[in-house]
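During data preparation, we tokenized the protein backbone, and the record follows.
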Amino acid sequence: MNNIKEKTLLITGGTGSFGETILNHFLHTDIGEIRIFSRDEKKQEDLRIKYKNPKLNFIIGDVRDFKSINQALCGVDYLFQAAALKQVHTCEFFPLQAIQTNILGSENVLEAAIQNKVARTVVLSTDKAVYPINTMGMSKALMEKLAISKGRDPRLKESGAKIMVTRYGNVMCSRGSVIPLFIDQIKSGREITITQPQMTRFLMSLEESVTLVLNAFEHGNSGDTMVQKAPACTVGDLAKALLDIFQAKNPIKIIGPRHGEKLFETLCGREEMAKVQDLGRYYKIPPDLRDMNYTRYSEMHLANDGLVTEYNSSNTTLLSHEEIMATLLQQPYVREQLTR
């Protein structure tokens, strides 16, 4: 990346899986300072001991507290907003907590970014924000709307700052995801618990999630939503691939869908696909920058006229058993677990 020498980057939720992965990326650049903003002092201490790098600055704070994030963003050039409640079933049981972090907390982060004239802000969203049926997806969908709305803020034009959205599917081996759970069940000899074998989910590595964010960071315009195309597989096939990788014969137990789970996930809705820009590896969904004086506008041009369909985990490329195994074996976490 260009023009980052001596710049300051802040990562909210910086002690999470994404935060540490992108932290590793920037540590090998000539960036001046990386601020890790989160609530968890234990995880911050672990990272501080692990890296012992003078570029790192750890800040205890909560996105729910405007004063703490506003102060932390003083002098910041770039911002990645990764702080969120991400577990679907947890958000279903505690919806107000999801609202306070994912919506109101994101509003605090975005407003503080504008007030502090942060040059580029990228917020992280999820496929669950498209046609949402659960609290986590609904709260993330509103976070996206907040970011796009802030992208129209006249203060951005004055400062030249940009706010972009990234949206992606399941990140393999991230904290709290299903692959570490399946591996733990396999290695401890327990039953593998599958909600519904036919469920399909996008597969994306942590490194790919970072690449998507960096692409939005470098090439996005304010209000853009960037989506990375990704293959998918069924949950049942994923479990079978892991059994073969670990040469195990654990029984599989079907436990049924958990609260708020969908049969498949969607990365781009039908309405979005009608105006999406296909960039090869990515889709870019541009914002609708018209105001509410609709009588001033002629019919809005759609990039893809005619019949369009959504882009979801059932109509994307579905991986074969061998392809799933190969994809899993590329993940450092899976390889590490195999050697233990």
